[in-house]
Each structure stands twice: as structure tokens, then as C-alpha cells.
Specification:
Shape: elongated
Largest sheet: none
Strand content: under 5%
Oligomer: single chain
Low-confidence stretches: none
Number of helices: 7
Distance between the termini: 74 Å
Structural class: mainly alpha
């Protein structure tokens, strides 16, 4: 168990490592990610992980470099997962033709219940009964929401 004196020594040695290694750690993160705006955050994350290790290793700079490489690898994997997820969900709104972008904006302005009816009916091709079941409401409610949504879209788009 650490005594108060041991904890103070650990904090003091960590502060020294932080002062000495911070600029190099940020440069390493910037070089590994190619993203200067992210590099400082990743460097901070690396220092947090180093601090959580408890006692500093014999060679804290080497351990810090290893942690930084791992943090940057995790960042790249996260970026890849995000890109795959975005491809799976279709093109971004900015890459759509003007009319489709206008339709997308108009759909976003609809209240959720109306937008859900339009998406389920036209995008997924569900019947009124299936839409009602999915939304947990009556078929009459689906019909009225559908009518209101189409009225709003026609008014806005025409």
C-alpha cells in the first residue's frame, strides 16, 4: 500500500515526465494520426493511461510511447468503424442532388410521428397495418399522420 509520501513522490515524478515528454508525445500522435486537432487529445489520453498504471516504470518515456501508439491505433480503428457505418447508412446529405437534399431537409422538419410514417410507408414499403403495428398505434392514426405529412411536404416542396 502506498503511503502519503510514496504518492507525493509518484505525483512529482509523473509531473516531471509530463513536462519533459508532452511535446514529443503530441508530435508522435500528430504524425501517427495525421490530425493535428486530435493529437493533443490523444496525447492527454496517453498520459491518463500512464498515470493510471500507478508506479511509473523504469523507463516511463518508452511506456508512454507504447501507450501513445496504442491510443492512436484505437483512434484509427474508431475512424474506420465510423466510415463503414456511414457507408452502410447511405450517402451524406451533402452528396445528394439538390432535389433529394431539399426532400431530405423537408423530411427532417416534419414532426417525428409524421416522419416515421412516411419513412416506414415509402422507404420500407410497409402497409398501413404494418406501420401501425411498428409504431404501436391504430391504422386510423397512421392514415391521419400520413395525410398531414404529405400535406406538409407538398406545401413545402411545390
Amino acid at each position: 500500500m502506498l503511503t502519503a509520501g510514496d504518492a507525493a513522490d509518484t505525483d512529482e515524478s509523473f509531473q516531471r515526465v509530463y513536462r519533459d515528454e508532452y511535446p514529443g508525445t503530441v508530435r508522435l500522435a500528430r504524425m501517427l494520426t495525421g490530425a493535428p486537432d486530435v493529437a493533443e487529445d490523444l496525447a492527454q489520453e496517453a498520459f491518463v493511461r500512464l498515470y493510471r498504471q500507478g508506479e511509473l516504470a523504469q523507463r516511463p518515456a518508452a511506456l508512454l510511447r507504447t501507450i501513445t501508439v496504442n491510443v492512436c491505433r484505437s483512434w484509427h480503428q474508431s475512424q474506420r468503424r465510423t466510415a463503414v457505418r456511414m457507408v452502410r447508412h447511405g450517402p451524406s446529405a451533402t452528396s445528394l442532388p439538390a432535389f433529394e437534399r431539399e426532400l431530405d431537409d423537408a423530411l427532417r422538419r416534419l414532426p417525428y410521428d409524421q416522419r416515421a410514417v412516411v419513412v416506414l410507408r415509402y422507404w420500407l414499403g410497409m402497409s398501413e397495418a404494418e406501420t401501425a403495428l411498428a409504431l404501436g398505434c391504430r391504422v386510423g392514426t397512421v392514415k391521419s399522420r400520413h395525410a398531414r405529412a404529405l400535406f406538409a411536404l407538398r406545401k413545402e416542396l411545390l
